[in-house]
Design goal:
The chain is an all-alpha fold. The chain is 89% helix and 0% strand. The protein has helices at residues 2-82, 92-118, 124-140. Helix 1 packs antiparallel against helix 2 and helix 1 packs antiparallel against helix 3.
Length: 141
């Protein structure tokens, strides 16, 4: 009788030990899953941080392109309107200067028209606004 009671107690102890080990292994597994998920979150934050630099460079490039296009147009217009001759100044050289200024103006206008057709509104201001919105959103999180 005593032996049976001892076996029952030993059996219960063995069951409790296995149950405890199994529970501990489950906790370790869940801890590893949490660490893995947190590493994924950190990786996403790092990727977003890296992309901000790319976004800034893209916005700067668009702004520089727009500025360059408009500057060239203004310079060409200035040159084209500054070439004025009176009737006695009409020489082949002066006519060539006038035609060159007009060609430069036409080239600048055609470039501007190509930009306007592809991008109906100048977008640098909008891009800067969106970039500021991204930074504002990041600071709030």
């Amino acid at each position: 009788m005593k032996r049976t009671g001892l076996l029952v107690v030993l059996g219960i102890l063995v069951i409790l030990v296995f149950w405890g080990c199994s529970g501990y292994n489950g906790l370790v597994k869940q801890d590893e899953n949490v660490k893995k998920a947190w590493n994924n979150v950190q990786t996403e934050y790092q990727n977003r941080s890296d992309l901000v630099g790319n976004l800034v460079n893209t916005v700067k490039g668009a702004a520089n392109f727009e500025q360059e296009t408009l500057t060239k147009l203004v310079e060409a217009r200035s040159k084209a309107t500054s070439v004025n001759f009176t009737a006695d100044q009409l020489t082949p050289e002066n006519i060539a200067k006038f035609q060159a200024a007009q060609s430069q103006m036409s080239g600048a206008l055609s470039r501007l028209l190509a930009v306007v057709e592809n991008y109906p509104d100048l977008k640098a201001t909008q891009n800067f606004t969106q970039l500021q919105g991204h930074w504002k959103d990041r600071k709030q999180h």
